[in-house]
Design a protein that fits this description.
Elements (H helix, E strand, L loop, with lengths): L1 H16 L7 H27 L6 H8 L3
Length: 68
């Protein structure tokens, strides 16, 4: 819970600072890849809480290792 609770205020401070900031195509891709990992990890956490299943699916493991 602490990791999640720390992430939220950090994001809340960061996002407003992005106004007017221009990103290169490479940076857009990097941010998109990181957000994909973040969403997949959040889904994994939700599944663990809901079902008790904590196994890391191979597809998610590959994504988190950057093997996509």
């Amino acid at each position: 819970m602490g990791v999640c609770q720390a992430f939220i205020p950090g994001a809340a401070r960061l996002v407003p600072k992005l106004r007017g900031h221009e990103f290169s195509e490479r940076r857009h891709t990097q941010v998109g890849n990181t957000l994909e990992k973040l969403r997949a990890t959040a889904d994994w956490m939700e599944t663990a809480v809901t079902t008790g299943q904590t196994d890391l699916a191979e597809g998610l493991a590959q994504l988190l290792r950057g093997e996509y």
